[in-house]
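Input sequence (304 aa), recorded before submission:
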Amino acid sequence: MPVNLPNNLPAVETFKAENIFVMTEKRACTQDIRPLEIGIVNLMPTKIATETQLLRLLSNSPLQIEVTLLQMGGHVSRNTSKEHLDAFYKTFEDIQTRRFDGLIITGAPVEHLPFEEVDYWNELCAVMEWSKTHVYNTLHICWGAQAGLFYHHGIDKYELGEKLSGVYPHRVQVPSSRLMRGFDDPFWAPHSRYTGNREEDLVAAGLEILSNSEEAGLYIAASADRRQVFVTGHSEYDKMTLDAEFRRDKDRGLNPKPPANYYEGDDPQNPPLMRWRSHAYLLFSNWLNYYVYQETPYNLAAIS
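Predicted structure, token format:
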């Protein structure tokens, strides 16, 4: 699919090796098409890995997409080079007068903190407030979903007691939802988090539960107007991401449990089973097509 990416972004070479079609800025300029403008607020510490994961899933569409990578200007990243951020990322200050068809707000490893104690919370709040009038549809992921639920709807997170880590079966709760079109019952999706949200709190706030899991709880919810989508899991994760997190936590002496339903035979000595790839692509293509492309105005200035 024609994802329009900066010529030297590391993901470009990864996608070429995976036979994923991408479009560089030079070629995109020759096509008389208005691309979908998609912003990605990347809050993850491993920004290159996360941008590659998300761009891979956004590639599964015939639509031309112009991607803008965003960072929090008031936060200093310790895991991604300043050179990479300066070359490929913008701040909210850079784009606050622009409008976007879609926005993705990623997770972040800050669940242990109250929202107000996260060092970029005020800036993220400014982004979420701006998104009401400058973005047609916003997709919130994991902690980004918890942050969005708290900011937009006053729904707080709660501690789970131990880390929820693994790949869990889920069921579609609203078969008529276009976002869930084509999903199996059950389907699998990864989770990796220490906190959660109570479904009854979302229902009381007027949100719709689209998918959940007996083991993992809430998975996907949407606002009544469908312009805010909240995904508590990590469909974008690569095959080895949970493995890397598990071994990192072991090295830190946290004595983690192996991710559930992940390794063959539930044995960390065996390779992982990737059960969620097709539904990850389906989730993002449905979001792009039904919640963004089919709904957003051609003239972005008309977004309100």
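Checked by second reader. The two ends are 29 Å apart (CA to CA).
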